[in-house]
Amino acid sequence: MKFTTIIPVLLFTLFNTAYQPNPVPKAKHKFIVIAHRGDHTIYPENTLKAYEQAIKNGADYIEIDLRTTSDGKLVSMHDGSVNRMTDGKGLIKDLTLEQIENLKVSVKNKPDTATYRVPTFEQILKLCRNKIHIYIDFKDAGAAATYTMLKQYHMEKQVLVYINAPSQLTDWRKSVRQMPLMLSLPDSVKDTESMRKFIDEYRPDVLDGSYDDYNNQMVAFANTIGVPAWPDAQGHGEGPQVWDKAIAMGLKGLQTDNPPALVKYLEQKGLR
């Protein structure tokens, strides 16, 4: 065996011994499909209908954006304000739950006369329990309050949490050590060695970022130490060309803006 082959194997073995990531929710499929803000190809993003449609599509996760109202309630909206997505104005952190529940979610560029509302975390948990996993983009919330509600609905093993700031990482690690946490690769990570240092320091359980932040060697390393990479594929150029590239790199999951199309593509490839 060549010396250059022994070193990577030894590195993988030692690193895997020292680092035991939290297990992610049990997968039903070979390739993980994460529906970004639900299926908003049909329904407005981050609404119950968008999440329900992602379940019907056969996605593995819905991605939700979790925020806290002025009276301490948890709701799902990507933006910090309600301006873009509703008929109201203001920041979620400055509005009560009652005020937010009275807002109508806007339907843009589609002849849809239905009324959509901003969903509460509780409504989402009721919808998703035992049907689909949840990827929480942790925008503005507390770990303890979030976990309490997850336990109330027996969903604590059907969730992973995406971390946006160092304070959130500290909050979760102190409050709920066993929750699987997802982190994006920083711009400084360009190769296997810099990835190893990042993982060694921050201990993510799942990796995110853009799919083109990765190469074959980086994906192989992450897979070897049991830290899956399920990065973002969504964007104007998303489609078979992007998905082909991701699969060729060895990725086993993607976040998508078009879950029905990605699921169908994977079925045709024998990956579902």
Q: State the shape.
A: globular
- Please mark out the parts with pLDDT under 50 across 5 or more consecutive residues, or reply none: 1-17
- Please report the distance between the alpha carbons of the first and last residues: 36 Å
Percent helix range = 25-40%
Q: Main sheet? A: 8 strands, mixed
Query: Which CATH C-level class is it?
Result: Alpha Beta
The helix count comes to: 10
Radius of gyration: 19 Å
CATH architecture type: Alpha-Beta Barrel
Give the structural class.
Answer: alpha/beta
Assigned CATH superfamily: Phosphatidylinositol (PI) phosphodiesterase
CATH fold topology: TIM Barrel
Question: Which sequence of SSEs, written as H and E, runs from N to C?
Answer: HEHEEHHEHEHEHEHHEH
Characteristics:
272 residues; TIM Barrel; 10 helices; 36% helix
Molecular structure report:
This protein is α/β, with parallel strands linked by helices and 272 residues long. It has one domain (24-268): Phosphatidylinositol (PI) phosphodiesterase (TIM Barrel), CATH 3.20.20. Helices cover 36% and strands 14% of the residues. It contains ten helices and eight strands. The chain has helices spanning 3-18, 48-57, 97-101, 121-128, 143-152, 166-175, 192-202, 216-224, 240-248, 259-268, and strands at 32-36, 61-68, 74-76, 133-140, 159-162, 181-184, 206-208, 253-256. Strands 1, 2, 3, 4, 5, 6, 7 and 8 form an eight-stranded mixed sheet that branches. Helix 2 (48-57) links the parallel strand 1 and strand 2 (61-68). The two termini are 36 Å apart.
